[in-house]
Amino acid sequence: MSIRSKLSSGPAVLAFAQITNQACVFLRNVVIVRTLTKTDYGIAATFMIAIAFVQASTDLNVGKLLIQAPDGEEESFQRSAQLMRFLQGLFVSAILFLLAPVMAQVFDVPGALSAYRMLAVIPLIHGLTHMDANRYQRNSRFGPMALMESGAQLFSLVLVCVLAQEIGDYTLVVWSLISIPASYVLISHLLANRSYRWAIEPSYARRTFRFGWPLLLNGFFMVLITQGDRALLGSAESLNRLLLEWFSDIWEATRTFDKADLAVYSLALSLAIMPWQFLVRTLGRLLFPVMSRLQDDRAALRRIYISSAAVFAACGVSVAAVFILGGGSVIAIIYSEQYRAAEPIIAFLGATQAIRMIRLTATSLLLALADTEVLLYANIARAVSLLGTLGVIISRMDLVWVAASALLAEAVALSVSLALLRRRHGFEISLLFGPALFSVAGIGGAFALRQVGLVSEDLAKIALAGLYALLVPAVASVVLPRFLPGLRTLLGARRSQP
């Protein structure tokens, strides 16, 4: 079977599933934001921060190993992986429960202690997932995993719509978060072919740790990237009190960021990150198994690498343009005028995700080559944005500078990834010069239009953003030679040759 045939066996399934997922997440967030006050929504954001930090710090990525390993089809391997996942979930659950009082104190919400403790059940439930769906992906069979994810998100949306009539505070988010893994695990067992079993295989356990420890550290830094700025904003009040105690002679008791500020930033981030998640779970999931099977064919890897980078760059610029030119208007219309302050924040966060989409190409290649250490180094570089966030909090600067520091750090992380890919695997940095320059030019053009202020009405801004986004692929087809071949490959278009 040709590379194009392998890719075309799952795109429609994955695309439909991810559109469904993102639609459910979006609608659920709209219901939550319109139900809760800004302060309660800010408190709810700390729940997601807490789960993300603990889970990412203990995730050995056994599902990825099951796809990447040559002997991943063996039943004993899968049983060992399922045991590892359960033990991981049990460990994370215990940590969350024990740290609940600490989190309530750090985020300055002592009244939410019971809610933090309820979160501990989430990783325990997730640890019982049947891993047949991961194994199916070895042969580009994505339907079961797509159904699991879509079903879980749909159930959570329905539950939130029902409970919103009765629950008007942040506990609504807790029940929403619990419902997702519960339905996900149930569907995983309903769709499985093999019986659910555990097995103790020391050799597989050692391989899991060898493969997973860099990804575990990488996951920790990844959560620093995605949640660290929000964690600092959520703990700003506690940090301010601490600075007053330590430096009372020089530190003034002025206003700092509160949970309402966290709500504004969280809303902007949740909206800006959706397109990136869509691409990771569609194109990224399609590319990884195919690249893994072509580990020894560097010529084929190079072709896919260059083509996918061109496509990802165009997608990133299109999405960034929507957020830069029309993001504030979308937020005000859909979520309410009280979140209008997120307009400049989502502009910078949209640009950040565009750069991150290019890095996704390098990430897929590194995973296929089982070089997870480079991912760790890149995310360490990306995490330096937290220093910018801390500086913003201490200096009492505007919230938009948190998003601006994230954009700069993402560019640094991309540079580190490309440099190490060249040094360790011979993939020249120049291979991605075209997509990178295209992204910079496209993002810069969108910011320039925004600064000029051609239109002022919200609907007109959204229309301008949509027009810019639609023009990006047309321009890419002219200035990026590998864009159209890459698009045809990723969409599964067939040619006469096999």
Briefly, what is this?
With 498 residues, the protein is an all-alpha fold. The chain has 22 helices and no strands. The longest helix has 38 residues.
Folded structure, characterized:
The protein starts with a helix and ends in a 7-residue tail after the last helix. Helix 9 packs antiparallel against helix 10. It has 22 helices and no strands. The protein has about 500 residues and is mainly α. The chain folds into two domains: about 200 residues, no CATH class; about 260 residues, no CATH class.
**Strand-residue fraction?**
under 5%
Rounded radius of gyration (Å): 22 Å
Describe the largest sheet: none
Task: Output the helix-strand order.
Answer: HHHHHHHHHHHHHHHHHHHHHH
Number of H- or I-type helical stretches: 22
Provide mean pLDDT, rounded.
83
Silhouette: globular
The number of distinct β-strands equals 0
Poorly predicted segments? 1-9, 493-498
List keywords for this structure.
mainly alpha, 22 helices
Topology (SSEs and partners):
Blueprint: H1 3-8, H2 11-35, H3 38-56, H4 62-68, H5 75-106, H6 113-118, H7 121-126, H8 132-136, H9 143-163, H10 171-190, H11 202-234, H12 236-246, H13 259-272, H14 274-293, H15 298-335, H16 343-368, H17 372-382, H18 385-395, H19 400-425, H20 433-452, H21 458-479, H22 483-491
Helix pairs in contact: 2-9, 2-14, 3-5, 3-11, 3-13, 5-11, 9-10, 11-17, 11-18, 13-16, 14-15, 14-16, 15-16, 15-20, 15-21, 15-22, 16-19, 16-20, 17-19, 18-19, 20-21
